[in-house]
Write a structure and sequence with these properties.
Helix content is 72%, strand content 4%. With 310 residues, the chain is mainly alpha-helical. The strands form two sheets. Strands 1-4 form a two-stranded antiparallel ribbon. The chain has a two-stranded antiparallel sheet with strand order 2-3. It is globular. The model has no long low-confidence stretch (mean pLDDT 90).
């Protein structure tokens, strides 16, 4: 079972941080971990789709932050209704991902190069549009609905967490039970063999980017609800965290192998490490270092598994 190893890592990490600090396993703190995981977890859904095709998206954080800024600014500064602002931000996220997909499938540029370039473009567009300012919503209504908390004593779950879990349920079904999902795995595993089998690999690749863009739009809505607005610098570490969640969740960076539920566990592992280290008083820079080490361990384990199988 691909998700078994990351699940064991998650359990061990929770036990270690729980023994190190008695505040870690308190319901209120676990609520924070879940809320922090909602944004990274949602991003990891889209990132998983792209990595399954043997690609990678370095611009996910920039795309999401651009969408959050558009949604928030249209509501706060322009007075647009929340659903209209959400739809515009959602479509911008899809359009940005479509641009990445076109450059990969039609111009034949490597996904790493494409998304490295668009990362700068989308980040610059966000900073120019924001004029360096964060936006706090006075009365968000619909656009901040995802931040609504459902309380169970001192433990609470936000609507955004439920939306993230719904995304995993939908795409777990789509990847395993639909022709599109099977074509995605086949294209990522061996594109030439998939093409000879009659799969229109370019169309499958482009669809992966566009669908991922839709997921990033929903992640943006979750983030707006979580921070009650938009921060143009919010996506700085989210690219690395989304890739980390996918890789330590068991999806191969070489494509064609992995289960999306592993990305959910990976997102929880990332947030458990961030939260546990923060409670221990570790400098934030060392938290980023720890995430980097996790990525290296996960990629090394993936390489080792591939060498053993070959």
């Amino acid at each position: 079972m691909p998700a078994l190893s990351p699940l064991l890592v998650l359990i061990i990490a929770c036990l270690v941080f729980g023994l190190a600090n008695d505040r870690f396993l308190r319901p209120a703190n676990l609520s924070i971990v879940l809320q922090q995981a909602a944004v990274v977890g949602a991003l990891a859904v889209g990132q998983t789709l792209i990595i399954l095709t043997a690609g990678i998206d370095l611009s996910v954080g920039a795309v999401m932050v651009l969408a959050t800024l558009v949604m928030s600014k249209l509501v706060q500064n322009n007075g647009l209704p929340g659903p209209v602002a959400f739809l515009i931000g959602f479509l911008i996220a899809m359009l940005a991902a479509y641009l990445n997909g076109i450059l990969v499938t039609k111009i034949r540029l490597p996904p790493f190069i494409v998304t490295l370039g668009t990362l700068s473009i989308f980040t610059a567009a966000t900073l120019i549009y924001a004029q360096g300012q964060t936006i706090t919503l006075n009365n968000g209504g619909f656009i901040t609905w995802t931040g609504t908390a459902i309380k169970f004593g001192s433990f609470s779950i936000t609507v955004g967490v439920f939306m993230m879990l719904l995304l995993y349920a939908v795409f777990a079904f789509a990847l395993r039970q639909t022709a599109w999902g099977r074509h995605l795995y086949a294209t990522g595993d061996d594109p030439e063999a998939a093409r000879l089998a009659g799969i229109r690999t370019d169309r499958v690749l482009l669809s992966a980017y566009v669908v991922a863009g839709a997921v990033f739009g929903i992640a943006a809505w979750i983030l707006v609800g979580r921070i009650n607005g938009a921060d143009p610098n919010a996506g700085v570490n989210l690219n690395l965290q989304s890739i980390t969640a996918v890789v330590i969740g068991g999806t191969s960076l070489f494509g064609g192998r992995g289960a999306i539920v592993g990305s959910l566990i990976g997102a929880l592992i990332v947030q458990v490490f961030n939260n546990g280290l923060a409670l221990a008083g570790v400098d934030p820079n060392y938290q980023v270092l720890a995430i980097g080490v996790l990525v290296l361990i996960a990629v090394g384990a993936d390489q080792w598994i591939r060498s053993v199988k070959s």
